Amino acid sequence: MSCFTLRTIVDNLPAGELTARMPRKVPAGETISRVEAPRGELFYFIKSNGTENPARVHIPYSPACATGLRCWEKAVGHQLADIPDD
Questions:
Q1: With 0-12 CB in 10 A as exposed, 13-18 as middle and 19+ as buried, what is 39?
Q2: CB within 8 A of 63, min separation 6: which ones?
């Protein structure tokens, strides 16, 4: 979104208190979410037992750049455009 669009949205918000209420208890169940990040896929797993706190939250840290680090010794001395430099 552009800055103009964001400013237009914020300027036209109605005045007053927020009227949306979020439930304190999350329904029991499980969910999985995957999103594409700049360096690979991010994966989230959340399990609820029907209380205010989740029973399990798992966010594995395994970005694509960490998987590719094993091949770096073969890349020494070559010009590769897509190797992260951090």
A1: middle
A2: 37, 39, 40, 42
Question: Which one-letter amino acid corresponds to residue 40?
Answer: G
**66 touches 86 (CB < 8 A):** no
What Å distances lie between residue 30 and 17, 19, 20, 37, 45, CA to CA?
32, 28, 24, 23, 7
The pTM assigned to this predicted structure is: 0.46
Mean pLDDT by 10 residues, the chain (86 residues): 87 83 84 82 88 87 58 67 56
